[in-house]
Amino acid sequence: MTETPRDSAQRALADPTTPAAELMQIVSAHPDLGWAAAEHPNAYPALVDWVRQYSPRPGAAEAPGPAAGADHSSVSEPAPTPGTAAAPAAEPAAGAAHPPATETHPAAPAPTAGAAQPPAGSKPRSRGLLIGAIIAVAVVVLGGGAVAWSTWWSNTHNDTVATQPDDEAADDGAAGDDAGGDADGEGADGQGADGADGEASDPEEPAEPTPDERTDELEAAAKRNGFPVELQGDWCPDEVSEETPCFSIEDWASENPDGFVAAMEDSPEVYFERPGATSIQLCYTDEEGMGGSCSTAATMILLYYPAGVPTNACDDEYVTSGFEGCEPVYEYDDSRDRLIIVPNHQQSAVFYVGAPMYRQ
Description:
Elements: H1 5-14, H2 20-29, H3 34-38, H4 45-54, H5 124-162, H6 167-172, H7 211-225, E1 234-236, E2 247-248, H8 249-255, E3 260-266, E4 269-270, E5 272-273, E6 278-283, E7 299-305, H9 317-322, E8 326-327, E9 338-342, E10 351-352, E11 357-359
């Protein structure tokens, strides 16, 4: 079954090593996966803030706002910033009762026709007790209703006062920095989380990882897939095309489940000596009788040049004396890590050079 972009995104969210930059791309392409991205160990504060504003909550109805009883304690809603107005409360639905219903004790039922009457000659005190009980119940019911009405009026009055913007907020046209949107989909700065008129902005770019953090990521990937750390990451040439595509060792291993590393050598001689580089020979499959190696047709040879090591592709005596020239001619950025796929055969009059790929 072909994996869809959404399947790939969900697989990446389940991977604790997925970098922050990829989390940003996932929530931009799939806002409904934002809360899963916010739970990821590499989620950063700006991404989580964005998710709070623009990603629909899991299991929520189409109308904005959290479902009743939903527990989002792991990604808590931010408190309004001092000095800013709170977001307007949602207007009650048309026809809703005012004040909101509150739980009260029901009134005692009225006597039904034909019910037994007090026997003649009963003491006035019994009748007085009955009347007193009825009055007490009426007081409880009316008192509960008065408390409910007072609570509703107080909440409504406070919400109305809280939603009135001050002079500064009115001048800026702001209804709240991060307090969320109202029922019509209007959020902070007039942007909508779910409303038809609102448009979500892209989250902020994550900070670039430090060299130590980058090294930790590559080493973790090497432990996960079993291939050398020199090959980890996504590698792409300056101009990507069908002839010069990007390369990923994880994609290669997925496409070649029987593939393995047959040889690895520092400062190798691949057609000519390459000081400071590392050659890595990959076999697409374990061929019978090859003793842990493979035929040339089943081999991929890669050259890894760390940052600072020059790429000596076309200036060696082997090339200049034995061939009519080099093709194609590339500009190399020796300040970056490079990976070059070396052709298995050099049988033409011109020495062919693989395109330099740079770790992304």
